[in-house]
Amino acid sequence: MSRPRKTHKEALDKANLRWRYVFFVAVLLVSGPTTHYITQLLRGHPLDIHYFWSELSPQRILGGGLYNGFGGSDWKIGKALATPWTATSLRSMSELRVFALQLVNRDRTINNLPPLVEDPLLSKAAQLHAQDMLKRQYFEHITPEGKTPRDRFIAIGGSPRAGIGENILKSSGGKGLGLTYEELEKAQRGWMYSNGHRANLLTAEYTRFGYGIVVGAGGQTYAVQMFAVPEPIH
Description:
- There is one protein chain.
- The protein has about 230 residues and is of the alpha+beta class.
- It is about 45% helix and about 10% strand.
- The protein has two domains: about 10-60; about 95-230, CATH 3.40.33.10.
- It has helices at about 10-30, 30-40, 50-55, 60, 95-110, 120-135, 150-155, 180-195, 195-200, and strands spanning about 115-120, 165-170, 210-215, 220-230.
- It has a four-stranded mixed beta sheet, with helices on both faces.
- A hairpin with a 5-residue loop joins strand 3 (about 210-215) and strand 4 (about 220-230).
- The chain is globular.
């Protein structure tokens, strides 16, 4: 018994479907998430593969960029704390530091880890490093003079017995109005989907937290998270 032959319309529909798939793959390859994924991989900071699903999901597009996804196979990320009504208002530095800590503790709590508390000296060290990176236009944990995060913390009065961790972030293309909850949500999401940065955020031994952020006139944003264990003695 011979098989029925496909009609011209069926063949055309199949060809159109194939080209749509090729077009979708091409768009994905040149999209922002893919570019960021490759860039981070080349920098030695690979992202969790679930990053793609969070960035390309309809919920993220419809939610105005405040959708975080669900995390990875063995870790979770919390829902956005900012709303479309609170995300884009300019905030003071004290408001930003409170919110940054809330985001960190949101993600530690959902992963069954104890919350952190803010350490003013860590926040000072983080802010100074963010300002220095903007002023001298570099993006590294180590300063041009070779100072490590621990060196910088000790230099402003921190305990030499403290174990220090640090996450840094640089973003461009803004309008110089980056001191918003939306920027902090975006930074926290990026750090959580980055394997190495997430390791700092979810280190059980850390007890203290500091945060710094600065935005240049051209829209360059530098943000710094610092962590400490044991409790720094000032």
